[in-house]
Give the backbone structure.
Amino acid sequence: MPLGSDAHDGFTEPLLAARGMVKSFVGNRVLSEIDLAVLPGEVHAVVGENGAGKSTLIKIFAGVYQPDAGEIRVGGVPCRFRTPRDALAAGIVVIHQELSLAPDLTAEENIFLGRFPRTAISTVDRRDIRRRTRALFDQLAIEIKPDQRVGSLSIAQQQMVEIAKAISVNARILVLDEPTAVLDERRVAMLFGVIDRLRDQGLGIVFISHHLEEIFRIADRVTVLRDGRCTGSDRIDAIDQDWLVSRMIGRNFPQHIAHARTVGRPALEVSALSVPGHFTDVGFSVSQGEVVGLAGLVGAGRTEVAQAVVGLLRSSKGTIRVFGREVVIRGPDAAAQHGIAYVTEDRKAYGLLSNRPVRENLTISNLRRFTTAGILRLGSEAEYVRDMIRQLDVRLAGSQVEIRTLSGGNQQKVLIGRALTLAPRVLILDEPTRGVDIGAKQEIYELVERLVARGTAVLLISSEMEEILRLSDRIVVLRRGRVAATLMREEATESRIMKAAAVAS
Amino acid sequence: MLAALVLLVTAASLLSPRFLTLPNLLNVLRQVSIVGILAIGMTFVILARGIDLSVGSILGIAVVLFAGSMDRLGMAVAIPIGFVAAAAAGAVNGIGIAYAGIPAFIMTLGMLSFVRGLAFIYTGGTPIPINSQQFYELGNGYLFGVPIPALILLAVLAASGFVLGLTPFGRSVYAIGSNEDAARLSGVPVRRFTTLVYVISGLMSGLAGLVYASQLSIGTPIAGQGYELDAIAAVVVGGTSLFGGKGSVGGTFLGTLIIGVLANILNLTGVDPFVQQLFKGGLIILAVLIMSRSGRR
């Protein structure tokens, strides 16, 4: 009997059973002998670092890739998916991280797009659409108006619309690819409510996530992938976090040693800064050699504060001082000249030059550094890039590969490296580990420690409590665009931050 | 792409014994020089994820200005006049697109009509003859046995390749085309460089106009009509992505040659000029089809 299926009781036929999945790209084996079975009414979590093979596996289920070997059975029937349409016909719906809804259409129009019910005279039967959408939303206990424009919905609500759409095409197996990566705590709970109902209705759910605590909240069974192999698969009640982590990274999680930090003079002082519509009277300071965390719920105005500091948003009042001198910063270029570098939270939209090589992505912020008499010194650039790739431990086939081919963690390292080419005295990291695997996360933390030890002032924006608590010397909590609390490291706890961020005082 | 060109050349030499003769090959180079120069300017624009529909019209205005001032003021004055006008038109394009936020397609479409109108007004609709023999030599003479327009094209190719590959500006053009927001966040002066890209395209149009005017020794206000499409075709056949950030002037040069060689062999074998249009159209579509196939994983 193949590995992974032996834990099933044998009476329930799996909805989806993949056996011996093998996939190689240009001789590079990214999946070897993966087994995965999903029972009806079961949430099966798939975890693993980036590059472990999760995406490839999902794409096989979605009919985007064809496996080199192995067999997929849906409801006991062997299937071959040549196209995404085949997978859909078999009842498998994949909901990707980037949603594929038309923002200018309403929720109900999106759900029935391409298969609108018709009236007797062949016009679109709007009444039928409305009725069926209401039924779907009721079934899932989703509170969205059917005629609301999708573009005006939150990401979480858009996910719900996608899920409703999947149900409406009679999906039996729902694959959710990191659905919680872009959601705050409250919306994660909403999503899990919907997943629970789907489970009750007998669907099989494949759930991908980086957040281990979520796995324990929602999954019935978990399969761990590492380097394209299955390193473990078990019922969730039979395992614990250490079991998961050790199988994911193949080593024990290194204990963080809190370094004693030497704090120097104030590097960035922001006082009474306001950007109308985003935040009001925000003040804080970051000194050399310390990390100040900027916490708060999504929408509290954290990113906007960072954008105002680097001149992407115009402030209406307030001052910014850099090493004691008041400055007016009109854009990222000017910010760089004052020694301030910003690493965006939205890699894809504002960070990556997707179809350009890693080398160019690294050096674009400071080409001056490699320019003599107006001409790029490619040799010294290449040398610098080699050095940086080694320092940041970016894993790639060569500095000429396009950055879009890298995993999220490696992309993030390159973007941090891009900021470092400016040799910043103030580094603003906005969600530096979003969509990044555990191993890379660890490395990014270590990098931050190294920078701080060298005297860099770091402003860290993060939605991850653990990250904020672990790295920050002080934590500034924003709530609805105002500073709700400033906590010292010793007094900061998850519940105090949460209270300041979410509860009106 | 190079393989495609080699294939085409092989086929051409089999079809017509006259194809692989030095005079004919030099003739091909001369014939493609005008569109080749336009296409190189267009490559800058398309790499930055823009489009310039006004290159043919800018060529036209430059041509009539060269013609109108050549015999009265002499080459040393006439040539700068045409170039200044061409650069100014490019600058207006760039400012409209980069600073006023007008879509490139619309801005340059408007400029196409506007500048062509100026050329007609300037000439009153009648072509202006040029009598300068010296100027005629520029378009029809040879240097080291190579037609001067071909030499100009090669010089422009080398200079553009240098700028795109070895200067911060060139690197930034790719960055802007790849992801404008990311480029801005990285401190690239996106607006200034975008404007510059259209100025370059304008200047190239002026240069192409110079070759055009000197080859024909006449300044006609309809000069260069429709050339923008030939230039875009050469860029696309040359493998530069219309979505920006991907491609090269070397590719554009090959694309220009592929189209030029095809036209040449069709001429040599006496194919009906109307039928030639079919071949050209088919080639463009085929080239893009092949590229979109090979670009996919």
Remarks:
- The longest helix of chain B spans residues 190-216.
- The radius of gyration of chain B is 19 Å.
- Chain B has one domain: 32-282.
- Strands of chain B lie at 128-129, 142-143, 146-147, 218-219.
